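Morning, I've got a small favour to ask if you have a moment. It would help a lot if you went through both lines with me. I owe you a coffee for this, so here goes:
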Amino acid sequence: MIAVTGASGHLGKATLNYLVAKTDANSLVAIVRDPAKATDLSDKGIQVRTGDYTDPASLAASLAGVDTLLLISSSVVGEERVRQHTNAVNAAKEAGVKHIVYTSATSPSANALFPAAIDHFHTENLLKESGLTYTIFRNNLYLDVLPMIIGDAAQSGQLPFPGGDGKVSYALREDIAEGLANALTSEGHENQIYEIGATSAWSFADIAAILGQKSGKTVDYLDIPASAYEAELAKHLPAPVVSLYTGMAEAIKQNDFNRPDSALEKLLGRQPVNLEDFLKS
């Protein structure tokens, strides 16, 4: 039996949609905080169970009979996220889960520039020390978030971002979901760490050039100061979110997301959607 936490979220739901096409729906468990948000999953025959990262007892109960757990990382950041992941791993051990597949991030370390990568570093260590079999997907930045960063660049002719010449090996969330489903339903992934992204990497100057080709006019990349980016974000977002995005920008500049790899291509059995195709579509 395969369980997926965060099953009502974008990645969890997409992964279950691929899984239900590959295996018996009765062997799938969607773990959610609010079952009312997962009626589309239960309609497909998937078992929907209530479990909360902050409630270890509910997690352990929701994992009864589960062999493999897809632990989709919590949406909070910092020490609370690590606590929630610790709850999930301990609940999995208590319930007799044998294998955890975890959605981590590129370049995890104790002093990562991207704050979320610090949490993933600690969770990866937790998994390695748990005694459970693990598979770690170090997911690169989603192509899906680019429209929010790009904004109206194609119309204005300017793409401001403090990314320097740094490059990113973006991946489409839907491709990651399919890769997860393939890994969950096949052998040979025990105690493996996969760098999940494209086989190429792109800078923001590359993005500007592609946008220019698409729009038929020049789009200039403006490598703005990090302080200007932070000040603009602070007008609209709370401080923790500003810290997350400014850290991500600095990590991009330092090439922490410049990790071309063929792992996702091999898991999919095809080329993942690349940045140029995504922007053109």
Observations:
- The CA atoms of residues 207 and 240 lie 27 Å apart.
- The chain is about 45% helix and 15% strand.
